[in-house]
Amino acid sequence: MNNKRGNYARHAAIWDCEGRDRSDVIDFYSGLTEKYGHKVLCLMCAVGTIACGMAEKGFFVTAVDIEPEMIAAAKKINAGVTNPLFQVGDVTELDLSEKDFNFAFIGGSADFHHLLSKEEMLKALSCIYNHLTDEGCLAIELEYPADESWHSPRQRFDLAIPPETEIKAWKYGETSYDAGTMRMHINQEVFIEENGEVDSFFHEFDLQLVSRKTVEILMKKAGFQVIKEYGGYDFSEWYHGSDKWLLEILKVKKQ
């Protein structure tokens, strides 16, 4: 994967620490999984919040992330747990010993967009294809590209971390989007206060958004077919302007 993916290694200490309710996301991917089987591959899993939620529902989950720090944090949070199975891995070079997953998913709306070229995207899709059973399913959440360029100036965001953790975190960030290239640029400075001491780090990265036509072409080349587009975790039908862009994608024969 490209090296312009930001400083997620330093984020591992505070990732998903706000304790947000993710039950709607877990229910969505669990609902899709039920249609295909119970063996699940969670890609770009971070600290494994969604993967763990699905494991609690009875699915057998392998969760993969490129950042060793994220996987270490996931294992620490879930010490003694054997399901999910957490592994370090790059989605563009993935070669697990098991290749009989019924369902795979990339559940963060920005995750797939860290792949900054069509070549990287196709490599990732081909790797996923090789890990799915025949007629297995891939689900991806994407950001739908805006028609016009925009810029969000630098501003402060405070993370709502529960006070019992004795950690405070906030960030200053700005974001710009170029409609011509469908490229988004995010530049953040993250601050973490613990035991009265403040540490900070920079987190700068690009995201490459893609059109529906490009998605269709990439999927066809990789041996997939988009069979359903959803506009929300409630399985509502997608339309231009939906809050979410969620794809249910079937593995078919490569052309």
Task: Briefly characterize the structure.
By secondary structure, the protein is an alpha/beta fold.
What does this structure look like?
With 255 residues, this protein is α/β, with parallel strands linked by helices. The chain has two domains: 8-145 and 210-251, 3-Layer(aba) Sandwich (Rossmann fold), CATH 3.40.50; 150-208, N-terminal domain of TfIIb (Single Sheet). The chain has six helices and eleven strands. It has helices spanning 8-11, 23-33, 49-56, 68-77, 118-131, 212-222, and strands at 39-43, 60-65, 85-88, 101-106, 132-142, 150-158, 167-178, 183-194, 197-208, 224-230, 245-251. α5 packs across α6. It starts with 7 loop residues before the first helix and ends with a strand.
What keywords describe this structure?
2 domains, 6 helices, 255 residues, N-terminal domain of TfIIb, Rossmann fold, alpha/beta, seven-stranded mixed β-sheet, globular
